[in-house]
């Protein structure tokens, strides 16, 4: 859904820009006094700047207040499965490989060498979560799997010749069905 919204918004804004350009092109042939046009332009620019500041400030406040995204509300620390993820040229290392539906997971993502991108995909190859895997830093990603199935971790940051090899399947199971593991 978000992708189609982004798509239509892009077309709309491209259309607006094209409209602005054709207006400027049309006006460019007319000879007019410069001073009044400049004054009007500065006024438009001032209100545009204030409007942009208000919109962006509001959007930043709303989106940043939700950080860290998708962090589940768990009662006790042991209710959260903590998984250490290390990216390296050219694979992913996970400290834990058994995942269950409905279980809150915290991925602690880092890298052993260069910067990689930790991208988590569902069975339809839709990106459901991502973060940077950086040497010397640990970035947290929170997720609670809602459906069983085979999910994929892919590298989202070009990290030299074997970048495309950085794929790992993780299997999410229905809890209780497979017995003890
Ligand atoms: Cu990589």
Could you explain the architecture of this structure?
There is one protein chain. This protein has 181 residues and is of the alpha+beta class. It folds into two domains: 63 residues, no CATH class; 97 residues, Cupredoxins -  blue copper proteins (Immunoglobulin-like), CATH 2.60.40.420. Helix content is 31%, strand content 30%. It has two helices and nine strands; from the N terminus they run ααβββββββββ. The chain has a five-stranded mixed beta sheet with strand order 3-9-8-5-6, with no helix packed on it. Strands 2-1-4-7 form a four-stranded mixed beta sheet, with no helix packed on it. A hairpin with a 5-residue loop joins strand 5 and strand 6. The longest helix has 31 residues. It is elongated, with a radius of gyration of 24 Å. The structure holds copper (II) ion.
Question: Topology, please?
Answer:
Elements: H1 2-27, H2 34-64, E1 81-88, E2 91-94, E3 99-100, E4 104-111, E5 116-121, E6 127-133, E7 139-144, E8 149-155, E9 167-173
Parallel strand pairs: 1-4, 3-9
Antiparallel strand pairs: 1-2, 4-7, 5-6, 5-8, 8-9
Can you describe this structure in just a few lines?
This protein is of the alpha+beta class and 181 residues long.
């Amino acid at each position: 859904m978000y992708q189609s919204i982004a798509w239509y918004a892009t077309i709309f804004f491209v259309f607006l820009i094209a409209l602005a350009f054709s207006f400027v092109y049309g006006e460019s042939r007319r000879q007019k006094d410069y001073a009044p046009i400049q004054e009007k332009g500065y006024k438009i620019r001032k209100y545009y700047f204030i409007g942009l500041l208000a919109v962006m400030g509001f959007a930043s406040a709303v989106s940043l207040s939700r950080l860290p995204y998708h962090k589940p509300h768990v009662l006790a620390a042991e209710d959260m499965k903590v998984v250490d993820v290390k990216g390296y040229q050219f694979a992913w290392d996970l400290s834990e490989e058994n995942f269950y539906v409905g279980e809150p997971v915290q991925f602690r993502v880092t890298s052993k060498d260069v910067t990689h991108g930790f991208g988590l995909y569902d069975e339809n190859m839709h990106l459901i979560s991502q973060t940077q895997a950086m040497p010397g830093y640990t970035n947290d990603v929170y997720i609670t799997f809602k459906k069983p199935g085979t999910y994929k971790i892919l590298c989202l940051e070009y990290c030299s010749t074997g970048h495309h090899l950085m794929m790992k399947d993780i299997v999410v199971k229905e809890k209780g069905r497979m017995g003890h593991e």
